[in-house]
Write a structure and sequence with these properties.
alpha/beta, five-stranded parallel beta sheet
Length: about 400
């Protein structure tokens, strides 16, 4: 009987084991996760769950009973400490679990502030898992002052929740503008204005020099010398792929665990999927940090374990919820040289279309689901509509699909 062991009980790990069973795999499946909770959604952690609008059980990707009912051996609150590639076994505590196929869906870990600048003080948080959010939630009280370090999507989503709950919010971003790494200036401008309207103090081109306090954080000194009194701090300065186990076992690493187009690592019976894996794409290599990628890549790997030999071709899309705005992103904007703006019908609704020459690369749609869906279908079909037609609000977006 073929034995598949999956390390990492997040979105990718849960999707993979479910896909194996749904496509007729009748071997043994073991899913191992560090956390005590069964696999759950992460995006709502910094939004509805933190706002108190979503109960814990609603976070679960599947009922806990699903795993036992489908013959999946679920090990929670346990950590794999070693991979024995020669013996094809993993070490969990004092046990050695054999595998015929091993899948690494270890995800990513948040970057933390170094202890030298106060990163180890009480009251300094990251947003990554249930424990992080449960620890910070009691501090979200009106009039408390939170400092958010980092103006990416995680930082902005945390800022939106804090402002919505009546906290005083200061956000500092070392780059010249928020979202600089991932979005066009137009998208940055849109979200800056949105947060300012909600009372968030956004300071760009400004770094954190050090946090202040003895034992617990009480303040912060910024790179311009300004000192702020703060009640707690949320750090959102990016994530890194969780590759420690892979590195220890000698697998090839290249901006994550290096896999081929099928999802295999440098060891053909070890696979990887999700945030932790980098894969071939358009003649290069990328790593995608998104729920859709975690699901799609994991399901592709599951099929390939069963012999499908299917090349993984991502269809990138992302989203972010801030206040009453839903941002939906289709495609990858790397290399764009032109932005086409298409105003929406409703107030505050708009979309930004990224072009490289005549090629449509990506779309950022704010409260514009139609623009998002049309843009996504165009990109997936390899079609690039005339930018002037996109900008003209008299153009029915659906007609672009017929071009």
């Amino acid at each position: 009987m073929t034995n598949v062991v999956v390390i990492g009980a997040g979105q990718a790990g849960s999707s993979l084991v479910a896909k194996l069973r749904n496509t007729g795999f009748d071997g043994q499946i073991t899913l191992i996760g560090k956390e005590a909770a069964p696999p759950y959604q992460r995006p709502p952690l910094s939004k509805k769950y933190l706002l108190g609008e979503m109960a814990l059980e609603r976070l679960y990707l599947r009922p806990e009973s699903f795993y036992a009912e489908n013959g999946i051996d679920l090990h929670l609150g346990q950590e794999v400490t070693a991979i024995d590639r020669a013996g094809q076994a993993v070490t969990v505590g004092d046990r050695h679990l054999p595998y015929d196929h091993l899948v690494l869906t270890t995800g990513s870990v948040p970057r933390r502030l170094p202890a030298a600048v106060g990163g180890d003080l009480d009251g300094v948080f990251v947003v990554r898992d249930l424990a992080d959010v449960d620890a910070m939630a009691p501090r979200f009280m009106p009039a408390k002052h939170v400092l958010i370090v980092g103006g990416g999507y995680i930082g902005l989503e945390a800022a939106a929740v804090a402002a919505s709950k009546g906290l005083k919010v200061t956000l500092v971003e070392m780059a010249d503008r928020i979202l600089q790494r991932v979005a066009a200036p137009e998208t940055s401008d849109y979200f800056r204005a949105l947060h300012i309207v909600h009372g968030v103090d956004i300071r760009e081109g400004l770094g954190l020099e050090t946090l202040l306090g003895e034992g617990s954080v009480t303040g912060a000194r910024l790179s311009d010398g300004t000192e702020l009194a703060v009640d707690f701090v949320i750090v959102g300065v990016g994530i890194t792929p969780a590759t420690t186990l892979a590195e220890m076992s000698g697998l090839m690493i290249e901006n994550g665990i290096k896999v081929n187009a099928l999802g295999q690592t440098s060891d053909p019976v070890i696979w990887a999927a999700g945030d932790c894996a980098s894969f071939p794409y358009n003649g290069g290599r990328i790593r995608l940090e998104s729920v859709p990628n975690a699901i799609d890549m994991a399901e592709c790997v599951a099929e390939n374990i069963m012999g499908a030999e299917r090349t993984y071709v991502p269809q990138p899309w992302f989203w972010s919820d801030q206040y009453d705005v839903k941002l939906q992103i289709a495609g990858l904007n790397t290399g764009y040289d032109r932005i086409v703006t298409r105003p929406g019908d409703a107030e505050g609704a708009t979309s930004f279309w990224y072009y490289k020459g005549a090629q449509l690369l990506a779309v950022d749609a704010m409260n514009e689901p139609r623009a998002y869906m049309v843009g996504k279908r165009l990109i997936e079909a390899g079609k690039s509509p005339d930018p002037e037609a996109v900008a003209d609000t008299a153009t029915d977006l659906k007609t672009l699909l017929r071009g």
